[in-house]
Specification:
Pfam families: Iso_dh
Number of helices: 11
Shape: globular
InterPro entries: IsoCit/isopropylmalate_DH_CS (IPR019818), IsoPropMal-DH-like_dom (IPR024084)
Radius of gyration: 20 Å
Bound molecules: nicotinamide-adenine-dinucleotide
Family: Belongs to the isocitrate and isopropylmalate dehydrogenases family.
Keywords: Oxidoreductase
Order of helices and strands: EHEHHEHEEEEHEHEHEHEEHHH
Largest sheet: 10 strands, mixed
Structural class: alpha/beta
Protein name: Isocitrate dehydrogenase
């Protein structure tokens, strides 16, 4: 089912609102004259129902071949020992960098926010090395978790963040850590990232912050930050905080990037409460599509898409219900396509 010409890219409709917003994305990308030739593949709950696997081999093969995917949200069934498909994808393709830009589109609590969080995606406290130690009659008397940061992994994510900053004409990188307490685990991350920063000192400013102070500063004066690079756990928390500064997860795109593959997605989930009702806001997925265009060297098309999204969202009639408007999912798509063609 691949379109014959263009850059092959895997398209995963996903679950819940996924197919509705992916449908809009495909129509919008057509109107934009996007370079992608989509290869539609399944993952998530609907894949489990059809093939007995949340992440079928054909889907993995397709991503291995294309090295690129735009992914709708996936429902992870609760219980039954299911591992998150997102974590499986990250590990399968060694997607070590998670990039989450946050930009004010609709002025709200904070105006003129323009931040990018780069999170290490494979190491730290999320490696899943956890166990209990029994004492007396209590099998769960003590819980333990091991965090693992490697110098190579820290260097790789720091280099990614500094390169990203240079490529995107950013001015500063802030290294976020907790080296005063987790002296080995995040001290090594800080030391390594600072060493990497020296190589960029002629082009970029860089500094560092302890994570708790950074969280407070993000609320008091977020404009002082530009690109933030952090370890897995801190990056996870701060990236949602940053999404909150610009109106929540509904507007937040994310990219998971490795050496051989990159997967682009909305940060939100499958929203089962509104699935099938035409209420879903496709903005986050479309903004993820813009990141994907940047990634394949099409920044002009990416910017055209972002400008069109901004313009439609600037009108009351262009907003979906989550933003207090009356536009349906497909109506939002129609307005965007009109703007792109106009
Ligand atoms: P959710 O993000 O799906 O929904 C939270 C709230 O935000 C809901 O009220 C929902 O209606 C609303 N919402 C989310 N996206 C929206 C959009 N585009 N437009 C309008 N409203 C939107 O989070 P949840 O309910 O905690 O999770 C539901 C399922 O999604 C779970 O199975 C979870 O595992 C999965 N999930 C998947 C991903 C992913 O694939 N990347 C991420 C998060 C959650």
């Amino acid at each position: 089912n691949a379109t014959p010409h263009g850059i092959p890219a895997t398209l995963i409709p996903g679950d819940g609102i996924g197919p509705e917003i992916v449908d809009v994305a495909v129509r919008v990308f057509d109107a934009l004259g996007s370079p992608f030739a989509w290869e539609t593949q399944q993952a998530g709950l609907n894949a489990l129902e059809k093939s007995g696997d949340l992440l079928p081999a054909e889907t993995l093969d397709s991503i291995r071949r294309t090295g690129l995917a735009l992914k709708g949200p996936l429902t992870t069934p609760v219980g039954g020992g299911f591992r998150s498909v997102n974590v499986r994808l990250r590990e399968a393709f060694q997607l070590y960098a998670n990039v989450r830009p946050a930009r004010t589109i609709i002025p709200g609590r904070y105006d003129k926010i323009d931040l990018v969080l780069v999170r290490e995606n494979l190491e730290g406290l999320y490696v899943g090395h956890e166990h209990y130690v029994p004492i007396g009659g209590d099998p769960h008397a003590v819980a333990m978790a091991t965090g693992i940061n490697t110098r190579a992994g820290s260097r790789r994510i720091a280099r990614f963040a500094f390169d990203y900053a240079v490529r995107n004409q950013r001015r500063k990188v802030t290294i976020v850590h907790k080296a005063n307490v987790l002296k080995a685990l995040t001290g090594m991350f800080l030391e390594t990232a600072k060493e990497v920063g020296l190589d960029y000192a002629d082009r970029l400013e860089y500094d560092d912050r302890i994570v708790d102070a950074c969280a407070m500063q993000l609320v008091l004066n977020p404009w002082q930050f530009d690109v933030i690079v952090s370890t897995n756990l801190f990056g996870d928390i701060l990236s949602d905080q940053i999404a909150g500064l610009v109106g929540g997860l509904g507007m937040a795109p994310g990219a998971n990037i490795g050496e051989d593959a990159a997967i682009f997605e909305a940060v939100h989930g499958s929203a089962p409460d509104i699935a099938g009702k035409g209420l879903a806001n496709p903005s986050a997925l479309l903004l993820a599509g813009a990141l994907m265009l940047d990634h394949v060297g099409k920044p002009a098309q990416a910017q055209k898409l972002r400008d069109a999204i901004d313009a439609v969202l600037a009108t009351d009639s262009g907003r979906t219900a989550d933003l207090g408007g009356g536009a349906s999912t497909s109506k939002f798509g129609d307005l965007l396509i009109e703007r792109l063609r106009g």
